[in-house]
Amino acid sequence: MPDLTLTDVAKTFGDNTVLHELDLHVRDGELYTLLGPSGCGKSTTLWSIAGLHSPDRGRIAFGDRVVFDGGRIDLPPERRNCGVVFQSYAVWPHLTVHDNVAYPLKLRKTGRRERSARVHEVLELVELDHLAGRYPHELSGGQQQRVALARALAHPPDLLLLDEPFSNLDAKLRERARDWLRSLQQRVGVTTVFVTHDQDEALSMSDRIVVMDQGRVRQIGTPEEIYHEPADLFVADFVGTVNALDGQVVSATGRGGQVWLDGLGEPLDIDGENTPAGDVRVCIRPEQIVVHPNGAATAGVANLVTTKVRSFAFLGDHYRYVVGIGAGELVVRTPQRVDDGAELTVELPATALRAFPVA
Asked: Which domains does the chain have, with CATH numbers?
């Protein structure tokens, strides 16, 4: 399978610039996710790759094969050989599962025997061979989604493009579907671009994620890099849950320093390269906050804050607490049970704190 390269791709609709000089490189066999809020340009990027939109400028190449280059080259969708699965699945209600999957092969005038063998092969791949004679209205939403995927794979695509394919599924089915799809993608080895606004989908499925905002790339990295080492406050706030507090870095050494949080009496130590000086937003994930029960030994432990529980919720495998800190609040996630209104000591590890300059 080829890799995918987008160079200086831009797209406008009227006065609205949807993509700003986009540069992306998807490696051969990679599952690459475009993640961002509605209107950030991720679907426009996908459709530009598929040939359903023509960018205003830029270059798109599948390996060595250029499919778009400004006004000089603009291959139509049928010549790009992309398998596309849309949010709505778009399976034809009047065709059986077998005939839905066979349709792209029929368009390419594949022989009947070869066509039948390929349909059987991909239906087995998506675990629907036993339902080949059924119609879409006789299938569940998850089964219809698999039919759409089988159709996209029927004629082996150079690229598989997925535009929020799980958004119509309920939460439990969506979780099973993404695990199944990730396993299938790895077995097939097809280079895949996946569009979603669901952070759990992006983190659990992707080899790499590009976080987009207003047609621009904010960060590209592995799920671990995106979550634990966000490039800016937008990424930190969009991916997962984060506490963001106003503060001021009063000493910066290049690898950390000390930060005052508004309303807190003592500064906190902060580690991390490129810690900015001056006014900042200090971020920490709820699960990174350490709860020390009353009476626990804390001698020598830095960045301790004594506070009170303002509210809590039980969420099965953990409790979610809101506690006061200085002039703000912290969300804390822990398996420990603490009574509402009780006093507790929390530790904000220096390695877990990240500071971003105030724009």
From this structure: 4-236 (3.40.50.300), 243-357 (no CATH)
